[in-house]
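Hello, quick one for you while I still have it in my head. No rush at all, and the record is pasted right below.
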Amino acid sequence: MQPPVYILGLSAFYHDSAACLLRDGEIVAAAQEERFTRKKNDPAFPAQAARACLDAGGIPSERVDAVAFHDKPILKFDRLLQTHLSTAPSGIRTFLRAMPEWLKGGLGLRRTIREALGYSGPVLFAEHHLSHAASAFYPSPFDEAAVLTVDGVGEWSTTTIGTGRGDRLELVAEQRFPHSLGLLYSAFTSYTGFNVNSGEYEVMGLAPYGEPRYVDVILEKLVDLKPDGSFRLDMKYFDHAGGMRRRSRRFHRLLGGPPREPETILTQREMDLARSVQAVGEEILLRLARTAHERTGGPANLCLAGAMALNCVANGRILREGPFRDVWIQPAAGEAGGALGAALAVWHGHYGRPRELPGAGCDAMKGSFLGPACSDRDIARFIEREGAEASRMDESELLATVAGHISTGAVVGWFQGGMEFGPRALGARSILGDPRDPRVQSRMNLKVKLRESFRPLAPSVLASRSSDYFELDRPSPYMLLAARVRPPVRPDRRIAESESRSRTFGIDRQNRQRSDIPAVTHVDSSARVQTVDERSGGRFFRLLEEFDRQTGCGVLINTSFNVRGEPIACTPADAYRCFLRTGIDSLVLGSYLLTKERQRPLEEKVDLRKQLVPD
């Protein structure tokens, strides 16, 4: 019997670095470096994430058969060099600032990997968008599918169309830098005062408060959009080829003034800008999906990856209005997922190994619960060391108590099992609340998440009861599909608004009650739905069942276990610190329940940065 083949996939040096370990093509573990370093979107070499993956596989680095990296540094260097030369002298400062570190981490990558991991085996490189495409197709439940990848930029590609059949994956069309939907969206993200590479979610959440007043000017001046979804940006309005601002002064003049300063008051102008770029982005993605269908022979299914695949509103429209019967989106669709895709591309491409489908209706992502887990013994040691007050309960008592707390208005931190891979909390590192409470959205945003009150909160719903609440005819396990925009909440569950209240505008619209689950019903009556089933949901599924039994409501608010600007909690220490510093009322760590009133203030505690190493 042959020993198993281990492939370690890595992504790094742009944002959200990550590592993934495959054993004979099966995903063993995957994690983002930010979760360990506590630096949001950390671009550094993923040394700690790689170590966590190797530990999960129970192997030393010397046992790895190949390391796969998610892009090709020589091609990326070619693009960077040509871009800066073409914009000289304006981009010289950017070039001089970026090149030394990039040369060390990019062109010297083989040595960096070997030194960081103590590894001497082969290091292989997959093109950036091939890594995205592999992360989308190979773990999907489809034997055959079109593949669409859309992000900022890889080496040269910004968008690709591909086709997957069995274990074969081929890219058949591309759009190249600097014409990029991801960079267009990021330009509006920074212009409206949010952080690039994380604030795009805020733009998407802000969009329903606005009107598409700038769509015409975007399509007339900024974007020359073709029927097939390809387009060209008018580069006199942009600066992402030679500078760091992403926009030129002409961009500001065209759209009526300087950018919003971060953390200042949002005006109707920012809301209208957000709505407009979201509308343009959706139109481009819809056209690209239709073109992908035509170029790949009209398959029934579509797989999506790249950062723009995290736009759940656009995904919902592709599913409803596009030519495909079904759509599957990689839950770690951004840069982190490149680590997984690179490893899979090497397994099926370099090693030539066949693909085994996971079974009818299933994918290979294991619910995306691929990060480190802590046992109850680990948690007990942490609680004892920190002097925390906690009650250990059997599962039935724990679920009954927690469901009761939530039903009376408590906000609960929920820490269970393996950490999620990707940006969404899916029931392992979550903050939970009662969706029926109209006040809880603002409370959770302002006093728990420490972010803008307009941000929508997502619902997790029992898969068997999804159709009771949402117009969604299929599973959505990764919170990457928005139900129908108008309206996603079933018409018989919507609450009619008075004529006077319907005349409110902008942020004031968030205070209307649109349904009997108002805390997860966005201003446009949309919801970013996660369906939870028994197979992958585990204890979180059983909590939903208990909440349904107690209240008749099969839905919980589910938002990620972190505050604004911080990564999702990885360890009990991360969760406990967040619990004490925010408006979270109760914390569940495995089988242990902690309530706020029984804890000493954080200032009296020892250093919580010490991380517990799980058994």
Observations:
- The chain has three domains: 6-70+72-125+335-357, 176-328, 376-495+513-604.
